[in-house]
Design brief:
single chain; eleven-stranded mixed beta sheet; 4 helices; elongated
Length: 276
C-alpha cells in the first residue's frame, strides 16, 4: 500500500525510473538529484545570453531559439506561436522579464514561461507546462507534462509527475505530486520543528524514512482546498479530497474525504487558555 504504484499510474511514464527499486514511494526523494542529473538535457543557454533575466520575448522551437519574426496568438486558451502565417507546433514561449538563473534547465515543447517567473536549475520543465508570473522554481525540480506552477507558487526538490496543478500561492517542498489540483494557498510543509528525521506511524507500524526534509506524497486525483496544510511526511492516497483550511498529517488511504474537525477536548483547552 506504500509503493509508488499505489499512488501513481507510472505505466510508460518518462520518470518511472525514479521509483525503480524503491520499497516505499518516499524512497524516490533522496534519488531525485541523481535522476535529474542523468535525465537533464539543458537547452536555455541561448535564451539567457549570458545573463539571468530574459531581455526580450523568445521562442524555443525544434532546438532553435527564435528572437524575431514571429507572432504570439493569445486568442485561445493557450498562447501559440505563428511565423510566416503558419503555426509552429510545439513551440515554447519564454517571455521577456522571466529569469533563468543558470544553464541547468530543460524546457520542453509547448511550454509557457511568463514574465516574473524565476527558475533555478537543475530543473526539467515538461511539455505543455505553464510557469506563471511570480512562480519560483528553486532547483532539483522535475516537472512532467501539462503541469501548472502558478502565481507566487514555490517549488523545490520535488516532482510533479504530470497534470499536476498548483495555480495559486502554493508551497511544495520535498514532495511528489501525481495528477492533482492544489487549491489556492495550499502548503506542503517539509521540515519538522524538531531536529530529527520524519518517522511515519501507519497502522501500528513505524517507518523510519531517514529524511530530515520530507513534504507530502499526493496520489493521482487528490484535490486540496484553499489554505489547506499538510505536515511533514503526509501521504494522501488516490482521489483523496482535503477540505479548505484543513491541517493534516499521517497516511490516508485513497478515496477519503478529510474535513476540519475540532474535538471537544481542544475546544475546552482553548476556553481554558491551554495550548497544545
Amino acid at each position: 500500500m506504500l509503493n509508488a504504484g499505489d499512488f501513481f499510474n507510472l505505466d510508460d511514464h518518462l520518470f518511472k525510473g525514479l521509483f525503480e527499486g524503491t520499497d516505499y514511494v518516499w524512497g524516490a526523494l533522496p534519488r531525485l538529484k541523481a535522476f535529474i542529473k542523468e535525465y537533464l538535457e539543458p537547452n536555455v543557454r541561448e535564451l539567457r545570453k549570458g545573463g539571468t533575466m530574459v531581455a526580450e520575448t523568445m521562442v524555443l522551437y525544434k532546438g532553435e531559439t527564435i528572437v524575431s519574426g514571429f507572432d504570439i496568438d493569445t486568442s485561445g486558451k493557450i498562447a501559440v506561436v505563428k511565423k510566416n502565417g503558419s503555426y509552429l507546433e510545439g513551440a515554447s514561449i519564454i517571455y521577456a522579464g522571466s529569469f533563468l538563473m543558470d544553464d541547468l534547465i530543460q524546457v520542453g515543447k509547448d511550454v509557457i514561461i511568463e514574465p516574473g517567473a524565476l527558475i533555478k536549475g537543475p530543473a526539467v520543465i515538461g511539455d505543455g507546462t505553464e510557469v506563471r508570473q511570480g512562480a519560483y522554481i528553486r532547483g532539483d525540480v522535475l516537472i512532467g507534462k501539462g503541469c501548472v506552477v502558478g502565481h507566487t507558487t514555490e517549488i523545490k526538490a520535488s516532482v510533479m509527475l504530470g497534470g499536476s496543478k498548483a495555480g495559486h500561492f502554493a508551497y511544495i517542498g520535498d514532495s511528489i505530486l501525481g495528477s492533482v489540483n492544489l487549491g489556492a494557498g495550499t502548503k506542503l510543509a517539509n521540515l519538522k520543528m524538531f531536529d530529527s528525521p520524519v518517522v511515519l506511524n501507519i497502522e501500528g507500524q513505524a517507518y523510519e524514512t531517514g529524511l530530515r526534509k520530507f513534504g507530502a506524497i499526493l496520489g493521482d486525483g487528490v484535490e486540496t482546498g484553499c489554505n489547506s496544510v499538510t505536515a511533514p511526511g503526509t501521504l494522501l492516497g488516490k482521489n483523496t479530497l482535503l477540505y479548505p483550511s484543513a491541517a493534516v498529517r499521517g497516511y490516508y488511504a485513497g478515496g477519503k474525504i478529510i474535513k476540519v474537525r475540532q474535538s471537544q477536548e481542544i475546544l475546552d483547552n482553548l476556553k481554558n487558555g491551554v495550548s497544545e
